[in-house]
Sequence to fold (424 residues):
Amino acid sequence: MLTAIAVAAFVLLVVGIPMWMIFLILAIAAMVWQGVSMEVVVQGLTGNINNLVLLAVPGFIFAGNVMGQGGMAARLINWITALMGRVPGGMSLTTVSAAELFGAISGSSSATVAALGQILYQGLLKNGYGERFSLGLITSAGAIAIIIPPSITMILFSVMSNASIGRLFLAGFLPGIVVGTCVAVYCVWFALKHKITSGRSWDGGEIARTTREVIWTLGAPFVIFAGIYGGFMTPTEAAMVVSVYAVIISVYIYRELTWRDVWTITRDTARLSAKVFIIVAASGVFSWVLTANAVPQAIVASIAELNLSPAMVLLMINVILLIVGMFMDPNSAVILFTPLLWPIAQHAGVDLIHFGIIFTVNLAIGMFSPPFGLNIFVSCSIFKVPSSKVVGGLFPFFVAYLIALGVITYVPAVSLFLPNLVMK
Fold:
């Protein structure tokens, strides 16, 4: 049956059937074949989404969209640009730093690409980086938002594995910095090789002015993490509070959004959240079929017979997830493959939180991996260029991410140091 399910899923995916519909079609077909009551379908659809943690997803999506359109992202980038000054590769480093900070607010890769691209792309071109490098940098930098908490992918992983969302968020900080550092090293090397200067100098007045302007923006991640780790709010409550905070700042302080704009963002958030929730609901039925047929146990038994070392098991998991990321969006991938791959990692002695970060980083790379990386299509839409131009500039950034993935995979302390320090 597993072979039949895998072949059918591949065929339906190639045909273009939505992922949630594939889950339901295969699950219902398997149940009919085995004579299982259709009541299980209803129970599966409602069971997976009956989780308070999932309410954080629309909250962070909404907050990220408000900040991107309400002037908060622009002020963040202006501040970072002023701080970079004459640093070699200053404009490209601004892009990486902005991705780290905006990711700590939005948790959405595509939203980060859109926000950075609209503000920084022309600046990169004028600074001499060239179209290929600029497209590759912005398209890949958006993936950092999945790794830096709050991350929607981490929230979904928590739902599927019962991992602590608080520990996952803490675990994402250092890996996010490792990824950003690897990309930043390449950016500086590229700038020095091509003799690209920042064309700026440090200006104390500009730094002071942009710092005053960005204070309200920097308050958003403070609200999120001080609230969660100070014990005042759950991640779901923090998502709602930061949403209200973003609206107040964008409408009344920066005055770059109207209430009509907020309503439009609310509708867009509802549509995107519905897509996430319907995938989660449909996956509950599909997961029941896999569990009922002991598929995870069969996979673990097959891997155990190979007598692979833990290092080789992790390598195998990375290869699987990198391939999956090329064809599936992170939300669908984390829902489908967490119950399949976690038992394998658990058998190899991998910590659940460490595995969650490995999973997340792999799917972040998938966001800009051809042929179906979502960030590629976002960049094509924003910059009005063919996908071949975007893909052409991605290879060096792909290598930088893979180096970071290797460090994160085989040095567990990178992921576990902060959770073990803060949440003993």
Residues 2-422 form one domain. The chain has a mean pLDDT of 83. The chain has one domain: 2-422. Residues 188 and 419 are 31 Å apart (CA to CA).
